[in-house]
Amino acid sequence: MKTSLKFLAALLFVSSFSFGQDITKKIDSIISDSHQKNPNVGISVGFIKNNEEFYTSYGQLNAENSTKIDKNSLFEIASITKILTSNLIAQAVLDHKIKIDDYIDLYLPKEYILHENLKNKIKISDLASHQSGLPDIDFGKLIELNPQQPVSSVTEKTLASIINNCSELKDYGKYRYSTIGYTLLGQILEKVYHKSYDEIIRSKIIGPLKMTNTLTKDFNVKNRTTGHNPDGGIQEFFNWNITASAGMVKSGASDMVLFLKSVLNQETRIAKAAVITEKIFYKDEKREMGLGTNIVTDEENTLYSKSGDSMGQSSIICYNRAKNWGIIILLDQRNSKLRQNLLNQIYDTVLK
Q1: What is the full DSSP assignment across 170-234?
Q2: Strands (E), the chain
Q3: Residue 330: which domain range?
Q4: Which end of the chain is more exposed for a tag (fewer CB within 10 A), N or C?
């Protein structure tokens, strides 16, 4: 009997190992094929399933440098930052600093003075699920003024002016993607923890997970990739400023896999916070939203994802808690169509 059990265990191990190899080979094949078709777009991918990690990457750090992109290469994760910020908001709930359905009124910096029509109206969960109805930053205008660093001129005074002059929430309760909402969430975190957003994310996510290649204010490192706009022109990384909590963290595939590993391990504090973000806070005929997290459900799977686009890079993170896998895709060019196509192809042909 013992021999039979040992044989069965060995057989299961080999079967699992082969299955894992089959998945990673297929993912690598898809990424390799994409790079052959788009040789000027650098790609870094990290994948985790049942705590086993896999990485693949193609391209160079820049045109003048023969150093190849790898799992530690630094990218702008852009709006994937929002999934980190929403996790910090959920951690604040676990810390009893806030309640997710608290009104934002008591948590805003003193510079913000809400109009009477807006008082006791907007909840923290509304900000995090993009349904606050607050006006947003005019990115089109900012890009015209400074195409390399469009948000460099945005300050607390700028934001206070936008919010203080708002007297009506025209689309409250309806989905509208919001940078200002996640900027306010960063400021709410600062108020309840009495620390800067930079200090908070370092102490609660980056530090505990030992994410040594995840950077905030200072990202002048040798393994930094080069950003490219859709036409292939070189694009600067965004400098850290007040809107940081909405999209300014820089990271790499290996560190984002560390984050995914923690999210999928239900015993960690980050996972317990992630479960809060995975609850449905908004739903219409087109989408379901958690806190900063897009939720897609089919017959067999529930996926949680968040994409990101800076002026020069694109990214997407996705995971399936029930099936215990997660993936991060990073591109050194702003190309939202390509990154979405890669995820769709990997999911449809490998993971589904």
Answers
A1: TTTTS----HHHHHHHHHHHHHHHTS-HHHHHIIIIITTTT-TT-BSS----TTB--EE-TTS-E
A2: 43-49, 52-58, 60-62, 65-68, 75-76, 227-228, 234-235, 250-251, 282-283, 288-289, 294-297, 302-309, 314-320, 325-331
A3: 39-351
A4: N
Residue 127, domain member (yes or no): yes
Is 31 among the domain residues? no
Tokens of 180: 């200002």
Position 165 scores a pLDDT of 96
DSSP state, 304? E
The answer to whether residue 3 sits within a structural domain is no
Low-confidence ranges of the chain (pLDDT < 70): 1-20
> Encoding tokens for residue 120?
């006791």
Tokens coding 27: 């993912």
Q: What is the pTM of this model?
A: 0.93
Task: List phi, psi (to 5°) of 250.
Answer: -110, 140
Query: Which residues is 295 bridged to in the sheet?
Result: 288, 304
DSSP string, 71-98: TT-BEE-GGGHHHHHHHHHHHHHHTTS-
Domain-located, residue 27 = no
Domain count, the chain: 1
**CATH number of the domain enclosing 229:** 3.40.710.10
